[in-house]
Fold this sequence. Notes:
Elements: E1 4-5, E2 15-19, H1 21-24, E3 30-36, E4 41-45, E5 49-57, E6 60-64, E7 68-72, E8 86-89, E9 94-99, E10 103-111, E11 120-122, E12 128-132, E13 139-145, E14 155-161, E15 166-167, E16 172-173, E17 186-194, E18 200-205, E19 212-215, E20 222-225, E21 232-234, E22 239-247, E23 256-257
Antiparallel strand pairs: 1-20, 2-3, 3-10, 4-9, 5-8, 5-10, 6-7, 6-9, 8-11, 12-13, 13-14, 14-22, 15-21, 16-23, 17-20, 17-22, 18-19, 18-21
Amino acid sequence: MSLLSKVKQPDAQGRIQHITPESAGWRYVGFDAYQLKKGQTLRLESGSKELCLVLVAGLASVKTRQAEFPHIGKRMSPFERTPPYSVYVPHNEQVEVVAESDLELAVCSAPATEGKLPARLIAPEDVGVEQRGKGNNKRLVHNILPDDKPADSLLVVEVYTDEGNTSSYPSHKHDQEDSPDETYLEETYYHRFNPDRGFAMQRVYTDDRSLDVCMAPYNQDVVTVPRGYHPMSTVAGYDNYYLNVMAGPVRLWKFTWEKDHAWVNSDEYPRKG
Length: 273
């Protein structure tokens, strides 16, 4: 089973990516990406899942049966590096998205365990912004739906990594259930590049190397991470953006570093001289 989902030509709905638990061979995370033309309408049903709709680029009006969020969106490219507008949608809801410009829309999904939350707007000012790392391991993080904000299963974050830098590094994993050190979280990476003809290198591997896959995602490709470590490295000339979706039985991001590379977090890095 491939861990790399190549971007598709838009279907009748404008969908260019479609990841389900069944297609990924796991239990929790779903991910879809759409390229909608101005004036196009997309209708969705959440069913037994909760959704987080992320306006990666463009403007839209979104409404459910219980709430309306008219004229949202601001950035026209993710590489403006401002936090996005997003909409949280609970289970058993109908959603209508009207594109008010050309619109790149990500639909993140995971099981709704409680289903008691209302639909809500996640505005840019609601998004936590942080810088992580140092040296050639720096990245900018937008915490759209972190584990301290209400949801049943979903965790959603976007990350910017400049050309020549690493990200999701030092290598870390979150694939153990009932562990004091980790939570089991499946994860997808939706990649974008500036310029858009770029690519990155991403490796997914386990300690025993029973899983060890290297991939070169291009613009709008998706990497799926069922288990193991999953570092990513950019190449010269191309800045990277990725949108992460995570979910599992416990909505908490706990992970462990790979011991060989954890020193990159210490004062030994960057090396002097």
